Amino acid sequence: MPESLNSTLSDLQSRTAALCQDVLVPLAARVHSGELPRAVALAEVREAAKSAGLFGLTQPAEFGGRPGGPLALTLVRDTLASFNNPLSGAVLGPGPGVLADCRPELKDTHLAPLLAGEKRAAFAITEPADASRHTWAERDGTDLLVSGVKSYVTGGAEADFVNTLVELEGAGRTLVVIDRHSPGVHLVERFESLDGSHHAVLRFDQVRIPETRILGKPGEGMPRSMGQIGDTRLAIAAQATGLARWTLGFLNEQLSAPHRSGQPLGDREGVRLRYADLRIQAYAMRSMLYRTARLAEAGNNIRNEGMACKIFATETLGRIVDDGIQLSGGQALSLSHPLAQLYQRVRAWRIAEGANDVLRINLARGALEFGLGEI
Ligand SMILES: Cc1cc2nc3c(=O)[nH]c(=O)nc-3n(C[C@H](O)[C@H](O)[C@H](O)COP(=O)(O)OP(=O)(O)OC[C@H]3O[C@@H](n4cnc5c(N)ncnc54)[C@H](O)[C@@H]3O)c2cc1C
User: Fold this and answer.
1) Which of 169, 191, 215 is the last residue before a domain boundary?
2) What is the tens place of the pLDDT at every residue in 235-263?
3) Both 129 and 252 in a single domain?
């Protein structure tokens, strides 16, 4: 639980909260007022996060990072999100993702620049609903020729390279690294989703890459992709939990403020019942998150618990923000209201990184067919 942290983790939590309070909050206010460009503020956040020893927590020691374990990262993400600050994404540096343990050639050309913030990566798995076959790769000597369409590549238009899942002839699903501007890579469409993030539809027409662009062994693309997505699920649950705490803090103030009826809304029993329910759900969500992080910290495989956490945290946060809007009234539907913005932002998490119902099916399969998963 977040209460029983050792002194190192307690210190990490305090440093994260201090960074938010002393650096992110004032910088975000200056960006909001138009006084400071967002890009300048983000650069200042990155420098401050490096000084506070937070930036390198997601980066391998070999590249100058000081990698944090699952519990430390959960704590930092929960704490950062509890400030609901628009600059918090710059605090943790880019992680290696599926490039972890890649071959030496890719370390120099792709991994090192990615970790240094000099190159941007995207991850392409999802294919159009009407695709007749998976994106595939044929061998041509020591090269591969990749063809097909990926329909939902976050940051795909701006990326320098795209880690792409392909069906490799004779080997099965394999991850390969494709430079975004290689001949044959076409940007079909760039679109924005409800949460404000940007994505691309990419088409590959016989894109030639050397076989050294294969990540891991041919055929191990799915476990490698799922490993990356599995880590992201715990990260989403941590952010959702922090945002739930922020929402409850915001509501607390709303319900205690003067109201035109003559008494604060929080004095009404019906409102208190609803508010209490939200606190109960947030309590369960945070307890679940830290138990899962501790299981991971102890070296357990948390594939099933990570899915359970992601489902519960994203659905609970959805309910908390939705009820928060209800209790705040019409003003919370103004598009500039923080709850209206949060409502749009968090909806995507019930579909991204594995649609929640698909994860439910996997969770049931893990228990019924393999006897896996904790209660
Ligand atoms: C913000 C955002 C960012 C994303 N970024 C990326 C990215 O960077 N790279 C990438 O590859 N993808 C990305 N995606 C795509 C995401 O991974 C897919 O949207 C998700 O996996 C669902 O796939 P789909 O959209 O094709 O829906 P479908 O697979 O067509 O499913 C639609 C719905 O049908 C139901 N359903 C489907 N199958 C089952 C089943 N077996 N059992 C029960 N119900 C089922 C579910 O309710 C599901 O939501 C992103 C999505 C979002 C929203």
Assistant:
1) 215
2) 999 999 999 999 999 999 999 999 999 99
3) no
- pTM: predicted TM-score of the whole model, two decimal places: 0.96
Ligand 1, atom 50, residue with closest C-alpha: 352
**39 and 79 within one domain:** yes
In-domain check, residue 149: yes
Which residue among 98, 120, 125, 126 is best mutated to probe the pocket of ligand 1, counting the most ligand atoms within 8 A of its Cβ?
A: 126
112: closest CA among 154, 73, 60, 69?
60
- Per the domain annotation, does 105 fall within a domain? no
**pLDDT digits over 279-319, tens only?**
999 999 999 999 999 999 999 999 999 999 999 999 999 99
The conformation of residue 354, written as its DSSP 8-state character, comes to S
Residues with CB under 6 A from ligand 1: 123-126, 129, 152-154, 193, 195, 197, 348, 351-352, 354-355, 357-358, 361
In angstroms, the CA 42 to CA 31 distance is: 10
Q: What is the DSSP letter of 63?
A: G
Same domain for 150 and 245: no
Three-class secondary structure of residue 190 per DSSP: strand
Same domain? For 253 and 348 the reply is: yes
Domain assignment of residue 206, given as a range: 121-215
